[in-house]
Structures are given as C-alpha cells and as structure tokens.
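Thread: "does anyone have the structure for this chain?"

Original post by V.I.:
We have the sequence but no experimental structure in hand. Need at least a predicted one for the grant figures.
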Amino acid sequence: MSSLGTTVIGGGISGIACARALAEQGRAVQVLDRGRRLGGRMGGRTLHGRVVDLGASYLTVGADSPFAPVVAGWVDRGLARPWTDTFAVAGPDGVEQTKTGPMRYGTAGGLRTLVEDLATGLDVELERTVHAVTGGDRPSVDGRPTDAVVLAMPDPQATRLVTPDADVPDADWQPTLSVALGWPTRRWAADLHGAFVHDSPVLDWLADDGDRRGDGAAVLVAHSTAAFAADHLEDPDAAAPAVAAAVRAALGISEEPEWSHVHRWSFAKPAHAREAPFDLTGGLGLCGDGWSAPSKVESAWRSGDALGHALAAALPA
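Reply from O.Q.:
Generated one for you, tokens below.
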C-alpha cells in the first residue's frame, strides 16, 4: 500500500516539531496553517518599527531534555540567546523581591523565528483554512484522504474541526490578553527583566521586551489574568487603560505609555495540562502544550516530537 503522507494542522512549535520528526524518518508530511506566518502562540507583531513577542515570553530547557540540542543549536547560530535566570515579584505595593530559577532564553528576531527555523525544508502551506477533519481508519482533511492527521492546537480549536464521530479529548483552556506598552525611554529598573504579579485582578506577568530582545527598547508586554481576559474578550482594546494602570502601579511608573497594543489569546494555556505526551487514536493525533505537562514551549516541542516519532513507527513504509 502506497503512503499518502501525514497532514499536520497547526504551525506552532508542536506541529512543526511533529512534522520535523516525521520528515527526518523519511515520511511524507505537509503542514497547513491558517496564518500568514508560522509560530502559533510563539508569534509576535511588528509595532512601531520593531517585532514584539506577544505570545510565549521565553523558553526554558532541562539539561537532559531531548530539546536541549535544539536550543543549543539555536544559540550557536545566534537565533536564541540566554536572557536571564532572575525575575522580580510584584504585589499591590510594587516590586517586593527577586527570585532565581532556570535560564530563560530570548531571541533578537522574535520567538517565531525559532519555529520558522525548525520548519526549514518542510512542505508548509500558509493561509490555508481547514474546515473538516475525519479520524478513524480513513482519516481525511477537507475530503482529501491522508495516512494520518495531526491537530497541533488547543483542544477547543481541534474540536471544531473534527467530525462528530471522532473522539477528541477536550480540556479547559484559559484566555489572556497580551498588552504591549511603549514609552519614549525606560521608566523602570535596568535589572527588572520581568515580574510575576500576585494579588492583582488584572496582571499575571509582565516582561521587559527590550531586555529580552536585547535592543533596550522601552517596551513592556503585560499578560492579564484569565478572569480579566474573560471579561474583555468581546472588546479587548478597551482593556488597555486598566492594564497600563496596573503595570504603572506595579513598577512605580508615573507617566502614561505613549502607545499600547492589545492581542487577545482566547486559548492561551490549558487550565491543567495532561501528563501524557500526546494522543494518537487510529489515524488522528493531537499534540501541543496541552499535553506533556507542565505547559511551556519545551513541553509543546516534546509533545510534537514524540508524536512524530510514534507516527513514523506506525505508518506504512
């Protein structure tokens, strides 16, 4: 029986990792993504002449992780750089302390450039909206048969695509608003890097985008709490003043930002990521940071890579 190949739907890091694993095993694979560029939730936007990371804030990697050689390769080629192992902790009265943890890696060109690098040489079709997926023994994408279909996306999005007879696990996902704020010059400490925010109804986390990108731009990116985002999903732009006020209070900034930009992530992260690395039932696979807990960039890569290797072993030669 001839091979029809695998169709991976979703061009974030998990989908590209899955496709890369399949391609390296000599399997035919195509990636479909509805966006104009790859990246998924590692995406960003060009604002006021520079790229701003609006999705994932950074990546980490365990010393013994299979992801470690990938990150090392990015660092060696100048695509990623060690950023910081220290973040601030802020509360209602401002910055309280700093905490150290694993090394976080950032990029000069935006995190999506790492996904695009990983996709080098793969068959990728952008701006391709998929309408219907069937699973089982005869999987198909919009009526076109394939050997297997991979849905590399949050569960609620996957559920919308599959036919009712397909069994797709569905978990709760939380929204967030990512708000970029720009000032003419820096108004916060040079060693801020980023800050976890507690006891705020508005803020969960904020990052110094100029610091993590390495260009020193006076730009902060704040991520809202899930509850605040849920209240503003219909009109996210209206949330910008409240987020800016919360950021200024947390960091003691007296001046209003010169500009702001709000990005809505309706499915930003799973409420509880699964321990299993992926799901594979018949010819339908699911992967991403909703699997391989805890939810982070490394988990998404590991999920896709593991599913790609499992499919390569299961599919006809």
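V.I.: this helps a lot. The helical segments are 13-24, 68-76, 112-118, 155-161, 209-213, 226-230, 240-251, 297-314.
O.Q.: and The chain has a mean pLDDT of 94.
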